[in-house]
Automatic annotation (TrEMBL):
ATP binds at residues 197-204. The keyword Hydrolase applies. The keyword ATP-binding applies. Pfam families: UvrD-helicase (PF00580). This is AAA family ATPase. Keywords: ATP-binding, Helicase, Hydrolase, Nucleotide-binding. Residues 176-581 form the UvrD-like helicase ATP-binding domain. It comes from Motilibacter deserti.
Length: 741
């Protein structure tokens, strides 16, 4: 019976793959043809060609991405209909459906039907496949009134996925999404949805599948504006980067908080206290004051020489010009034009008097030109109102205690200001990024050249739009796409750039949806920046308040979100831990409990036969560390091991392991998960998972931060199999449940 069922499913699978291959061949031919198309040198033809090339390239990428486990489910409905569920929808030319996209409304029953609420499903079948072969079938009969038994009982697809070795890359969960997760994935697009859940409850997985769902379901609304996915660091982004392509989606921008200001990739480290000061909303006022302080009035009248004559720059004239410029409500660099004009107007009166000419429409241009050419005038006007970039403003603010004190104006204590002190040329940290963004808002573009560029770009865009209009009219496609749509999606200078690429280069880009992972870590200033990127406030925010490590991070969701969407955000909860084995989770929860931190303990679905263990060792005991790590490597079988330490112990541990283990086996930086062993702090390990974790000196980790308990909790909840704790000082409270080795 199993053999017969398997053969029948294999026949259908063959047909689906054959169809996929045909579609791929068609799209490659269309792409090749579009690439070869002559453009006849006109912008219209170029726009049209580039639009087609981009469209076919995106289709080709989608079809390439879905090769593995293309088909994974089948629904047999009570009414006799039957659907195969897979990564993408496929139909024959005469509209016979071969495969239903998992995101289509009809596929929801595959994830949500239960015996109690069968949603019209008689039988749900999970099909496991490997390289185009059916390798397993698992049936659930939901319509018990039919009185039958499952035709085939297979190994639980979910448990098989959960027990698999880790590869350093997150896999999609599309074949085994659970009902509580599916409801979140399919939640409506508008509004802010908060997904709170303990470790391993699938928050990251759910967030990424939601991105794929939204791009599919609301393509016309968000495909051209894109989806932004924010994750904690580059190693994490690398960990998740294959998930969306494997779901057939390429339209998302993945970014760390440090990359949210175009042109800056902030990765430098700083003390948690300094980051906390920078993360507070007070800094918005400090930056605003810093900008105002750069609009200066000289303390006394200044004599300036203009082509042999003398004029006086009077403080009152500068105050007049400054007030007028501020009243324009333009950003600093644009308001500078107003300021300069007003100052020169005042000086022109004096110059006219000095030269004994009347100031009128005929004489004014010449007098203003003389003033502009005077070095004295240029220098003093610049000193009063200098064009500024965000980088320059912030660099000078950090480097000059007097400037910072003046900008802080009582908002920061002396000790806090000292934490911000930085030499010019220091690398940017993630906490600087929202301050740069704040400054950019207030400064605007930094010089007149940029304004000229903008005007030129607008003119070019208009010309291209006109051509695109013609192109559409000629191709008969008007009615489906407007010329602006076409331009927005594919054209302008960057015809060959995707939405994702253009969005990540444009600070003022408004995303159609923003997904924030490990959202509990974001500071109020980081939220302020993100809200700017998402004026529609269509967001999915996932995180766990019990894992907050950053001092400026969240202790409640309302605290962060209410300033922007007061009372208008909605919270969902995930309750099942798919990662951490039950016994490990019990000890991790004990740690929170001992610290009096309330956490809704997520239920672990998995159990393993290893107990989490503790090893009493000497301080910085290299031999003991190597013993345990070598032992773990013996179990690893191609999986991943993390050695988690305090910041202070990290370098020591890397040194010990690099010296003793084969070259290349101890990773670091964004590609660390490509290696078998990663040595990380708890902060760096956030969001990641490993087959095994060796935790070094938990007391040191605990002592390093005011939120050390949360860091310890994060570290302990990373393994899918084994946790081993090495300690020389007493074990912190709550770790009594470890078995002493
Ligand atoms: N429905 C599912 N089917 C298969 N695997 C799942 C499912 N849900 C979650 N997982 C797996 O559980 C693990 C944890 O998921 P994920 O990293 O998304 O959790 P998280 O809530 O973001 O965790 P943390 O807060 O600890 O970072 C991953 O390996 C994920 O693939």
């Amino acid at each position: 019976m199993v053999a017969r069922e398997t053969a029948a499913e294999q026949a259908h699978l063959d047909e689906v793959y054959a169809h996929l291959d045909r579609r791929r061949a068609e799209v490659s031919a269309q792409l090749a043809k579009a690439e070869r198309a002559p453009t006849a040198g006109t912008p219209a033809a170029r726009v049209e060609r580039d639009a087609l090339v981009r469209m076919y390239s995106e289709r080709a990428a989608t079809l390439r991405g879905v090769e593995e486990r293309l088909l994974f489910g089948r629904l047999d409905m009570v009414d006799g209909a039957s659907h195969y569920v897979g990564r993408v929808g496929l139909s024959t030319d005469d509209r016979v459906q071969l495969l239903l996209d998992w995101r289509a409304p009809a596929a929801a029953a595959f994830y949500q039907a239960t015996a109690a609420t069968p949603l019209g499903v008689a039988r749900r079948r999970h099909l496991s496949t490997e390289q185009r072969r059916v390798t397993g079938i698992e049936d659930e009969l939901l319509d018990t009134s039919a009185g039958g038994h499952p035709a085939v009982a297979g190994q639980g697809a979910l448990l098989a996925a959960l027990n698999a070795r880790r590869s350093g890359r997150m896999r999609d969960i599309v074949t085994t999404i659970q009902a509580e997760q599916d409801r979140i994935i399919r939640a409506p697009l508008p509004g802010v949805l908060v997904v709170q859940g303990g470790p391993g409850t699938g928050k990251t997985a759910v967030a990424l599948h939601r991105a794929a769902y939204l791009l599919f379901t609301h393509r016309e609304r968000i495909a051209s504006s894109g989806v932004l996915v924010v994750g904690p660091n580059r190693a994490f982004l690398r960990y998740i980067e294959q998930v969306l392509p494997s779901l057939g989606e390429t339209g998302a921008v993945l970014s760390t908080p440090g990359q949210l200001f175009p042109g800056v990739d902030a990765t430098a480290l700083e003390s948690a206290d300094a980051a906390a000061v920078k993360g507070g909303l007070r800094m918005a006022d400090v930056v605003a004051q810093a900008v105002r302080n750069r609009q200066r009035v000289p303390g006394k009248p200044l004599r300036l020489s203009v082509d042999g004559a003398q004029v006086t720059l009077r403080p009152a004239d500068v105050v007049f010009a400054r007030d007028r410029a501020r009243a324009s409500r333009k950003p600093h660099n644009a308001a500078r034009v107003v300021f300069v004009k007003a100052v020169l107007e005042r000086l022109a009166r004096q110059l006219a008097a000095a030269q004994r000419v009347e100031l009128n429409e005929d004489t004014r241009p010449g007098l203003l030109a003389e003033l502009r050419e005077s070095r004295d005038v240029r220098r003093e006007v610049n000193l009063c109102w200098m064009p500024l970039t965000p980088q320059k403003l912030l660099t000078e603010l950090y480097a000059d205690p007097a400037k910072l004190a003046a900008a802080a104006d009582g908002r920061l204590s002396r000790a806090e200001r000292r934490l911000l002190r930085r030499d010019p040329g220091s690398a940017w940290t993630p906490a600087d990024v929202p301050l740069l963004d704040e400054a950019a808002e207030l400064l605007g573009s930094d010089d007149t050249a940029a304004q000229l560029d903008a005007a030129r770009a607008a003119a070019e865009r208009k010309a291209e739009r006109d051509y695109a209009q013609q192109a559409l009219a000629m191709s008969g496609a008007a009615g489906m796409l407007t010329a602006d749509d076409l331009l927005d999606r594919y054209a302008s200078d960057a015809a060959s750039l995707s939405v994702a690429e253009r969005a990540s280069e444009d600070r003022e880009w408004a995303f159609g949806h923003v997904i924030v992972d490990e959202a509990q870590e974001l500071s109020p200033m980081q939220w302020r920046l993100l809200m700017r990127r998402c004026p529609t406030r269509s967001m999915t925010v996932v995180g766990d308040i019990a894992q907050t490590g950053a001092l400026a991070g969240a202790s409640s969701w309302g605290e962060m979100l209410d300033p922007y969407v007061e009372g208008r955000w909605h919270q969902e909860q995930l309750t099942v831990n798919y990662r951490t084995p039950r016994r490990v989770m019990e000890v991790a929860n004990d740690v929170l409990e001992a610290a009096g931190i309330p956490a809704a303990a997520a239920k672990s679905v998995r159990d393993v036969h290893w107990d989490p263990t503790s090893h009493s060792v000497a301080p910085r005991d290299a031999a003991a560390l190597l013993d345990v790590v070598r032992d773990e490597l013996g179990h690893l079988d191609g999986g991943r091991l993390a050695v988690l330490t305090s910041r202070a112990d990290q370098e020591w541990a890397v040194g010990v392991l690099r010296d003793a283990l084969p070259a290349g086996s101890v990773g670091d930086g964004p590609t660390t998960l490509d290696s078998a062993v990663s040595v990380m702090t708890a902060t760096e390990a956030k969001g990641l998972e490993f087959d095994a974790v060796v935790l070094v000196e938990p007391a040191a980790l605990l002592a390093e931060s005011a939120r050390g308990v949360n860091d310890l909790f994060v570290a302990m909840t990373r393994p899918t199999q084994r946790l081993r704790v090495l300690h020389s000082s007493a074990l912190p409270a709550g770790l009594g449940g470890l078995r002493a080795a």
